[in-house]
Write a structure and sequence with these properties.
- With about 120 residues, the chain is α+β, with helices and mostly antiparallel strands.
- It has two domains: about 70 residues, no CATH class; about 35 residues, no CATH class.
- It contains two helices and six strands, in the order βββαβαββ.
- The strands form two sheets. Strands 3-1-2-4 form a four-stranded mixed sheet. It has a two-stranded antiparallel sheet with strand order 5-6.
- The radius of gyration is 21 Å and the shape is extended.
Length: about 120
């Protein structure tokens, strides 16, 4: 089952098309296209709320210019997890043509050769 991200505004159930992030040190609110993953310190907004957003006094808003693109459909989360597990399980490394040392890999751990001095 695919989870559709919704607008973070209370009472709004429209699909999210933008992400709001606050840059506290710069007193700036940044509204851009929907982030690929939901982050705990950002807010997903529908198009109406992304366009109508106002910032607190003394703050600036850096806003995406133009229309917000529709979210790109992603593969099912379970399929993505299975792909990640398959990638982590691969232990074979192709030979390097330049004779440089290869990185040994076992499961999700990697052995990196020491750096040349």
């Amino acid at each position: 089952m695919r989870h559709v991200r919704r607008c973070s505004k209370t009472g709004c159930g429209r699909p999210a098309v933008a992400t709001l992030t606050y840059a506290y040190a710069d007193l700036m609110a940044v509204v851009g296209p929907l982030a690929s993953m939901a982050e705990p310190h950002s807010y997903d907004l529908c198009e109406e709320h992304a366009v109508r957003l106002t910032a607190p006094r003394g703050w600036e808003i850096l806003r995406h210019v133009g229309e917000f693109p529709a979210p790109i459909p992603h593969a099912d989360d379970l399929e993505a997890l299975a792909d990640a597990v398959r990638d982590a399980a691969r232990t074979e490394q192709p030979p390097r043509p330049d004779g440089e040392a290869t990185i040994a890999r076992r499961g999700h751990l990697r052995v990196v050769p020491p750096a040349s001095l």
